[in-house]
């Protein structure tokens, strides 16, 4: 490799993968590497893969081959979930030098050196289900971001019948509270005003710890000076305990937003999905949390066309979603995933039916988003602008309020990453519009926040 060593990254899939890539970049940066764009010639390419669907596998293979074409002499490293699930398949792609699953990423630089010395491809993948410890890789600063993510756990114990993730990520492994607090303080010192707690199964944090829960962690994070917002990336309805609701009620920093995956609005479909709750139990949790936090925004995930989802089951889902008045929805058509029980279910739903159902729910989601946003017209929200966007011929700052409303407003680019009071003027399904009233924070430009 050249004296000016370069590394390029490409990340597929979820926000946890994005965090993992940032943590890997820290290792390279500390070793003197310079990061270049993935489409440029580089000494090392790292492809962080996704395997949640077969399309994720296909895109992962596509990016691996692109890296090999860009520089046939480069070291091509493949990591992430596809690498974990199918290491032999990945290693069989011509030009791949190193395969690392969802462990041993902290050893990546040493393994690259091993590959260079031995001049032979190498696989560092072991059974992830036997992994007991959280791989603690620190990320004190994010490139081109104005909100900081903080990974607090990995893995999942639920084994939903449609999901491959426990086999790719292993069982729940929680980050030690002292490590979470250490990184949170570093992020605040770097100038971040919001921290997003993330993980594969964020709400399961603490299941493998002794007498310590997500509620306890939130109470500790509340004490960090100058931290203004704490956001929980996702939580299952079954994990919303009375203790957690009390912590949310008392908190001055936890955002008024919870993402609570639904997946289906009929108990028979939930049973076949192995979702561990009935629709009545889900509704009861939403009622309790809304009673404690009346202006809470609740967003959710829904899978349509799951095997055995009859027309009447889908109509029940539509009515349930409408009645619950979600602030936003992520809608996905069911996709067969080899290696999961649901892929073998006999009563698969026709693709055209799935498509029609997706369209209906996307339309409903838009209506619900506008309805929620209208409740805030004329009121002031704290918004952290994250980017500059061209909307209707105007260059506007765009960011999220604590209730996860995406709001665009006129302002100077120097306030990116700052906390701003914005009065909401017009509601929209994807972006609402407002007017800047005042900038509440003035972070030093030395923080490097883009």
- Summarize model confidence as the mean pLDDT: 94
List unreliable stretches of 5+ residues: 445-450
Q: Examine the secondary-structure arrangement and name the CATH architecture of the largest domain.
A: 2-Layer Sandwich
Fraction of residues in β-strands = 15-25%
Give the class from helix and strand content and strand pairing: alpha/beta
Radius of gyration, in angstroms, nearest whole number: 22 Å
Q: Percent range for helical residues?
A: 25-40%
Total E-strand runs: 18
What do we call the CATH topology of the largest domain? Transcription Regulator spoIIAA
Q: Supply the number of structural domains.
A: 4
Descriptive terms for the model:
alpha/beta, Rossmann fold, Transcription Regulator spoIIAA, 6-stranded parallel beta sheet, 5-stranded mixed barrel, disordered C terminus
Task: Please give a structural write-up.
With 450 residues, the chain is an alpha/beta fold. The protein has four domains: 6-126, Rossmann fold (3-Layer(aba) Sandwich), CATH 3.40.50.12160; 131-255, Transcription Regulator spoIIAA (2-Layer Sandwich); 280-375, Transcription Regulator spoIIAA; 380-447, Nucleic acid-binding proteins (OB fold (Dihydrolipoamide Acetyltransferase, E2P), Beta Barrel), CATH 2.40.50. It is 33% helix and 22% strand. The chain has helices at residues 15-30, 54-70, 81-85, 87-91, 108-118, 165-169, 177-189, 214-221, 242-250, 267-273, 279-292, 311-324, 351-374; strands at 6-11, 34-35, 44-49, 75-80, 98-100, 122-124, 148-154, 173-174, 194-199, 229-232, 257-259, 297-304, 328-333, 380-391, 394-401, 406-409, 420-426, 432-439. The strands form four sheets. Strands 2-1-3-4-5-6 form a six-stranded parallel β-sheet, sandwiched between helices. A five-stranded mixed β-barrel has the order 14-15-16-18-17. Strands 8-7-9-10 form a four-stranded mixed β-sheet. Helix 8 (214-221) runs parallel beside helix 9. The model is unreliable at 445-450 (pLDDT under 50).
């Amino acid at each position: 490799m050249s004296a000016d060593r370069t590394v390029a990254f490409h990340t597929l899939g979820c926000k946890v993968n994005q965090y993992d890539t940032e943590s890997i970049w820290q290792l390279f940066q500390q070793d003197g590497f310079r990061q270049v764009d993935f489409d440029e010639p580089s000494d090392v390419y790292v492809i962080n893969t996704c395997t949640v669907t077969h399309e994720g596998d296909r895109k992962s293979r596509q990016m691996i081959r692109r890296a090999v074409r860009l520089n046939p002499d480069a070291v091509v490293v493949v990591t992430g979930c596809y690498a974990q699930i199918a290491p032999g398949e990945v290693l069989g792609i011509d030009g791949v030098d190193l395969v690392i699953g969802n462990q041993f990423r902290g050893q990546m630089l040493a393994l690259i050196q091993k590959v260079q010395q031995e001049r032979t491809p190498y696989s560092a993948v072991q059974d992830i289900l036997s992994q007991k410890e959280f791989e603690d890789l620190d990320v004190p600063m994010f490139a081109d971001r104005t909100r900081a993510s903080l990974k607090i756990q990995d893995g999942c114990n639920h084994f939903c019948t449609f999901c491959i993730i426990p086999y790719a990520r292993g069982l729940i492994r929680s980050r030690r509270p002292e490590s979470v607090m250490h990184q949170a303080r570093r992020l605040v010192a770097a100038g971040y005003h919001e921290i997003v707690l993330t993980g594969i199964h964020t709400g399961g944090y603490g299941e493998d710890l002794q007498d310590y829960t997500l509620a306890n962690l939130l109470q500790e994070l509340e004490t960090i000076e100058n931290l203004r917002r704490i956001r929980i990336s996702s939580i299952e309805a079954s994990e919303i305990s009375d203790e957690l609701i009390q912590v949310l009620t008392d908190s001055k920093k936890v955002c008024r937003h919870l993402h609570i995956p639904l997946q289906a609005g009929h108990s028979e479909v939930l049973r076949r999905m192995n979702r561990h709750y009935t629709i009545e139990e889900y509704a009861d949790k939403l009622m309790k949390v809304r009673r404690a936090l009346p202006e809470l925004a609740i967003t959710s995930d829904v899978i349509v066309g799951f095997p055995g989802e009859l027309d009447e089951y889908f109509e029940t889902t539509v009515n349930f979603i409408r009645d619950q008045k979600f602030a936003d929805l992520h809608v996905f058509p069911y996709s067969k995933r080899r290696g999961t029980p649901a892929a073998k279910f006999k009563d698969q739903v026709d693709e055209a039916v799935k498509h029609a159902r997706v369209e209906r729910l996307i339309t409903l989601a838009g209506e619900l988003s506008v309805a929620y946003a209208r409740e805030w017209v004329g009121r002031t929200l704290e918004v952290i602008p994250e980017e500059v966007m061209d909307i209707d011929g105007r260059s506007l700052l765009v960011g999220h309020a604590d209730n996860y409303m995406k709001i665009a407003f006129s302002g100077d680019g120097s306030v990116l990453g700052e906390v701003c009071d914005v009065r909401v003027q017009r509601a929209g399904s994807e972006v609402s519009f407002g007017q800047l009233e005042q900038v509440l924070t003035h972070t030093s430009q030395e923080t490097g926040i883009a």
